[in-house]
Specification:
By secondary structure, this protein is mainly α. Helices cover about 65% and strands about 10% of the residues. Helix 1 runs antiparallel to helix 4 and helix 4 packs antiparallel against helix 5. The longest helix has 30 residues. It is elongated.
């Protein structure tokens, strides 16, 4: 069901991009072209996310022993970098228009932007429910919402051009759209980069995990702890656990993993048990 929604969203957004681009070139509106490029990035991000979802479902194999869950994270990085490039290009074009103004046909701008607004709202509805569980789809959903807002801005610019010949409004709207595109990209990039750098984007405190585990009976010390995310919704941990004896080893391990899962949402834990602290200089040997 989710893949079908994505396919419909991709199709209507690609058609909209072509319509906006044609309208922008005919009317001379940079704001409409800016909206078209932003919309194209949305369609591309949906397409990449669709492919990544299919790859991410593949089971683990000899090469990818953790599976392919990070395919969607990589797709998100590609989409966000593309957004940055498009945003910077739009800023460049808008600033250039200040020195070289161009006459704009307002009615074409208003009509095409109105069609875009309807389609952007439809796409946002298609992706809303899926956006709750996926970084990629959430990014695409937010892009569509911003597209709808950009279309409102373009309609306003076209109307002011028709009524007052205020061609500078087109440049202003372009800069606003570009600024919002860059804002979205830079807000989401840190989370994506953190996951790819073997970090924990959920900001789980290692100190808090250690403190909680050391409250468990028969856990004398926890050290050499590392947290990272295998994928967007899958957190992992490794640690050394000092226990007085291995007599109740299986029960202790089960209790630790239960606490990690229930209280910290860590679903993959690798634990090394010791009867004494291995010493910081030798723990990783």
């Amino acid at each position: 069901m989710g893949d079908r929604r994505l396919a419909w969203a991709i199709a209507i957004n690609m058609l909209l991009t072509l319509a906006q681009l044609a309208g922008g070139l005919i009317s001379g509106s940079l704001a409409l072209i800016a909206d078209a490029l932003h919309n194209f990035s949305d369609a591309a991000s949906l397409w990449i996310a669709w492919i990544a979802r299919k790859i991410g479902r593949r089971s683990a194999d000899e090469t990818m022993t953790f599976g392919y869950r990070r395919a969607e994270v990589i797709a998100a990085l590609v989409n966000l970098v593309t957004l940055v490039i498009i945003g910077l290009y739009l800023v460049y074009e808008a600033l250039w228009r200040i020195y070289a103004p161009q006459e704009i046909t307002g009615w074409i701008v208003v009509i095409v932007a109105a069609i875009a607004l309807v389609i952007d709202v439809m796409t946002a509805i298609l992706t809303y429910t899926m956006s709750k569980d996926s970084l990629n789809i959430k990014a695409a959903f937010l892009h569509n919402v911003s597209d709808a807002l950009a279309s409102v801005g373009v309609i306003l610019a076209g109307t002011l051009i028709i009524l007052y010949r205020w061609y500078w409004v087109d440049t202003l709207v372009t800069l606003v759209v570009a600024g919002y595109v860059l804002y979205q990209a830079f807000v989401m990039l840190p989370e994506v980069v953190t996951i790819l750098m073997e970090g924990d984007a959920n900001s789980t405190s290692p100190a808090a995990v250690i403190e909680r585990l050391e409250q468990i009976e028969d856990v004398a010390n926890v050290h050499h702890l590392h947290l990272w995310q295998i994928g967007e919704h899958h957190s992992a941990m490794e640690a050394h656990v000092v226990t007085p004896s291995f007599e109740h080893y299986d029960a202790l391990k089960a209790r630790i993993k239960e606490v990690l899962h229930d209280e910290f949402s860590i679903d993959h834990a690798t634990l090394e048990f010791e009867t004494r602290h291995c010493g910081e200089s030798r723990c990783s040997l």
